[in-house]
């Protein structure tokens, strides 16, 4: 192909490569700091604040009957009530302490989420009764009590970690066979970049807002990893095509042409994927809220890395 017929890209990603690298580098650094602070926090002791699925315990969700507007309520009031409560003994054993209970006030004071040590049915009923005396009438139909033993929580944690490692290893094998070593390394770098930033956001949320991760979060990481690789593969396929068609151009210009050709498709694909996730965030309820948030963050970061990170690093590393 002659230079006169070479397509002129409307958007040249190579012009903004340093800005892209600095932005991603800063996001990764903040993520690592957040994970480290979580690990060093005595009340967490892990890179992410583990939820009930992993630690075991009892979770009680309550809904107040207070008409259109509920009176103001703070988590400190509920915590004080729980500290004053004396739980009934179970089989002669000393009842667990509620000093470490986690309390979340949701829906502008209409709903409550209590995260407690492992309680038996009588102890859980005592907690509900004590809270009702403080906050007023509760909706019995909306009251839910979920208990996960520490053994099951440990199994869920191990199962989630194994699932993540197996999925990442399978992706690494697939990419290694599909592309040459450099392409495979960059695709895996983007995967690590996307997962790290998603985890980093939740590490900071765990420190600042007490947000916990559960088994659904592990599912979201696997989904983000698959999306990240798929988006990067599309761009790499186009780059590989341009290397054959535009041999006379430098690799950086071939990358610009390839990214420009896939930019619209990538943005449209990401947008159509994010729309239902945004709907889940606003209308999916508390159960799926943080799952949708994790997917939204991961897919947004994955779209960015497939456009701004992997292609721009290719010319730099190919010269070495």
Strand order of the largest sheet: 2-3-1-4
Please tell me how large the radius of gyration is: 25 Å
**Runs with pLDDT <50, length 5+?**
none
Order of helices and strands: HHEHEEHEHHHHHH
Main beta sheet: 4 strands, antiparallel
- What share of the residues lie within helices? 55-70%
- The chain-level structural class is alpha+beta
Distance between the termini: 27 Å
General form: elongated
Mean pLDDT: 84
Hey, roughly how much beta strand do the residues contain? 5-15%
Number of helices: 10
Tally the beta strands. Answer: 4
List keywords for this structure.
elongated, 320 residues, four-stranded antiparallel β-sheet
Explain this structure to me?
- This protein is α+β, with helices and mostly antiparallel strands and 320 residues long.
- 65% of the residues lie in helices and 7% in strands.
- α1 packs across α6, α3 crosses α4 and α8 packs antiparallel against α10.
- It is elongated, with a radius of gyration of 25 Å.
Write the layout of secondary structure elements.
Elements: H1 17-40, H2 52-55, E1 57-63, H3 75-84, E2 102-106, E3 111-116, H4 121-135, E4 144-148, H5 150-178, H6 181-209, H7 215-245, H8 251-283, H9 285-308, H10 310-318
Helix pairs in contact: 1-6, 3-4, 5-6, 5-7, 6-7, 6-9, 6-10, 7-8, 7-9, 8-9, 8-10
Brief rundown of the structure:
The protein is 65% helix and 7% strand. It has ten helices and four strands; from the N terminus they run ααβαββαβαααααα. The protein has helices spanning 17-40, 52-55, 75-84, 121-135, 150-178, 181-209, 215-245, 251-283, 285-308, 310-318; strands at 57-63, 102-106, 111-116, 144-148.
């Amino acid at each position: 192909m002659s230079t006169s017929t070479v397509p002129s890209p409307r958007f040249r990603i190579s012009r903004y490569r340093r800005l892209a690298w600095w932005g991603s580098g800063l996001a990764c650094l903040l993520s690592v700091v957040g994970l480290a602070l979580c690990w060093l926090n005595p009340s967490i002791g892990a890179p992410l604040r583990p939820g009930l699925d992993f630690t075991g315990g009892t979770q009680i969700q309550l809904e107040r009957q207070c008409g259109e507007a509920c009176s103001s309520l703070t988590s400190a009031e509920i915590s004080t009530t729980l500290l004053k409560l004396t739980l009934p003994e179970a089989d002669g054993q000393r009842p667990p302490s509620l000093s470490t209970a986690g309390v979340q006030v949701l829906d502008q004071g209409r709903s409550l989420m209590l995260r407690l040590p492992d309680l038996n049915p009588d102890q859980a009923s005592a907690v509900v009764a004590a809270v009702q005396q403080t906050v007023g009438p509760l909706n019995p139909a909306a009251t839910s009590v979920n208990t996960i033993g520490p053994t099951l929580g440990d199994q869920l944690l191990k199962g989630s970690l194994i699932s993540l490692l197996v999925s990442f290893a399978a992706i690494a094998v697939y990419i290694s066979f599909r592309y040459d070593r450099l392409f495979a390394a960059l695709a895996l770098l983007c995967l690590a970049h996307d997962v790290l930033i998603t985890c980093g956001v939740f590490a900071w949320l765990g420190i600042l807002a007490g947000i916990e991760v559960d088994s659904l979060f592990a599912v979201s990481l696997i989904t983000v990893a698959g999306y990240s690789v798929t988006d990067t593969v599309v761009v790499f396929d186009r780059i590989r095509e341009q290397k054959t068609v535009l041999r006379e151009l430098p690799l950086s210009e071939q990358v610009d042409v390839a990214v420009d050709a896939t930019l619209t498709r990538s943005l449209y694909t990401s947008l159509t994927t994010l729309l239902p996730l945004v709907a889940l965030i606003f209308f999916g309820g508390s159960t799926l809220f943080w799952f949708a948030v994790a997917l939204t963050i991961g897919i947004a970061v994955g779209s960015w890395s497939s456009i701004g990170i992997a292609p721009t690093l290719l010319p730099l590393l190919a010269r070495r």
